[in-house]
Amino acid sequence: MEALWLQVLPLLGLLALGYGVGRWVEHRHLRSIEARERQYRGFVVTNLRVVPSPETVRQSSLVLGEAVIATDFFKSFAARLRSLVGGEVRTYHTLMTRARREALLRMLDQARRAGAQEVYNVRYETSNIRSANPRNPGVSVEVFAFGTAVVRQPAAGRSECHTSAVS
Amino acid sequence: MILVNTETVPGYTVREVRGLVQGNTIRAKHVGRDIAAGFKNLIGGELKGYTELLTEARRQAIERMMAQAQELGANAIVNVRFTTSAVTQGAAELYAYGTAVIVEPGVI
Question: How far apart are CA A21 and CA B65, in angstroms?
Fold first, then answer.
């Protein structure tokens, strides 16, 4: 009986740690993502491949952003239980969302540093990273976002361009 | 050199296609990072070490691709794509490829 307790207690401890601290970490991260996303409200972010009015483009460049996010113990445990019966693994839902939004934000940071307010042909790539240690059940997910940032000519130059096109 | 993942460089015209260029790198993470990741797998959160490693590796793949394009006399690479594949447990290949072209300012 005692031996059983010795096996179960650490597991319960890790689950509690994962649940408590994991939730707090996730909550903080989501708050930070929301705050930073607000800075990019006016940006054009699209997966369209064609850049409209290319004659006003001054400069274009590739921008990248990536993020590797690890699950907490509670979530990976719940996911393992879920895999016994199948169905939607809801605990990993926020993990993917966080990684994707974080990667996109880092891509937008690069675009802003380049002076761009538009990013075209945005693509995501996802890969999971598993530990080389077979005793570690944790899953980490990597999301990589990239696109083409476009810097337009100043508005004055653009309006000239339009009038010459009209006349 | 101009790098874009669109089919043409906006505001430019492709004069000549020089061909496919590519760059790759295979990276293994070291044990220390793996141990740190083990701890992170308990409480969750970003694995900054891995993010840095991947950013650095991808940059190297891009640089190798750019060096190839330079050899071909290109001034831009269009339609840049990336792939990642796990070679073994703990090692990954990062691969960047695209089409090297010569572009000129101006839209037809």
Answer: 42
Can you spell out the DSSP letters for B67-86?
HHHHHTT-SEEEEEEEEEEE
Q: Is the pTM of this model over 0.80?
A: yes
pLDDT, one tens digit per residue, over B16-51 is 999 999 999 998 877 667 777 777 888 888 988 888
Contacts of B5 in chain A (CB under 8 A): 62, 121, 123, 146-148
- Euclidean distance between CA atoms B95 and B74, whole angstroms: 20
Give the minimum alpha-carbon distance from B47 to chain A in angstroms, rounded to a whole number.
6
Please report, rounded to a whole number, the percentage of residues in chain A having pLDDT higher than 90: 52
**What CA–CA distances, in Å, run from A140 to A13, A54, A105, A126?**
21, 40, 19, 11
Q: What number of residues does chain B have?
A: 108
CB A103 within 8 A of CB A56: no
Q: Where are the beta strands (DSSP E) in chain A?
A: 44-45, 57-72, 118-130, 139-152
